[in-house]
């Protein structure tokens, strides 16, 4: 069946009329803040305590917009006679958001959960050089990161939590004193022990009976 001439135009005008009759909703930004979803990719926050300066985020960044500087420090031995160790100390961690394309690769590859997405997006600057946020600024963004969603009650327990729980239970069991025998256990053990009959009060011995002397036999 051939389409009726002008049917497409009529459908388009019908959509326009339905839209015109609806009440328009305008968000009065910035007076009214938008309701953003929790996984909004606004800005990246840095949790400095978890950073080990592994440089993995900087190497995987496709835009090379992450700058990291560090130095090594010697840590004294924890026990006498132990060996000294060296660790990396973070000196600079900066992200140039004028180059960042918000792909999230740095957050995904971080093995120590030092980078997080924050829904904050109000950090526009008049100078492009101010879009390079140093670690102090990145740490301020960290406090705007929303809490993670609750786990599914039917989900399996995470391996890290299960391992920590088993270790805590093992240590608690080692620290507990050995169990003592209760009064009920003592009574039960006494009831199970064999008892001597009431009429048999003699004590039998393996020693032979001594014979009386000759003088004693005559007197008897």
UniProtKB/TrEMBL annotation:
Of the GO CC terms on this record, one is: plasma membrane
| Region of interest (Disordered), ranges | 148-220
4Fe-4S ferredoxin-type domain residues are 42-71, 91-120
**Which cofactors is this protein said to need?**
[4Fe-4S] cluster
Q: Which UniProt keywords apply?
A: 4Fe-4S, Cell membrane, Iron, Iron-sulfur, Membrane, Metal-binding, NAD, Quinone, Repeat, Translocase, Ubiquinone
Superkingdom of the source species: Bacteria
- Give the cofactor binding note: Binds 2 [4Fe-4S] clusters per subunit.
Instruction: Select a single GO molecular function from the record's annotations and give it.
Output: NADH dehydrogenase (quinone) (non-electrogenic) activity
Q: Which residues bind [4Fe-4S] cluster 2?
A: 61, 100, 103, 106
Membrane-protein topology: Peripheral membrane protein
Function of the molecule: NDH-1 shuttles electrons from NADH, via FMN and iron-sulfur (Fe-S) centers, to quinones in the respiratory chain. The immediate electron acceptor for the enzyme in this species is believed to be ubiquinone. Couples the redox reaction to proton translocation (for every two electrons transferred, four hydrogen ions are translocated across the cytoplasmic membrane), and thus conserves the redox energy in a proton gradient.
Assembly and interaction partners:
NDH-1 is composed of 14 different subunits. Subunits NuoA, H, J, K, L, M, N constitute the membrane sector of the complex.
The name on file for this protein is: NADH-quinone oxidoreductase subunit I
What species does this protein belong to? Streptomyces violarus
Tell me what gene encodes this.
nuoI
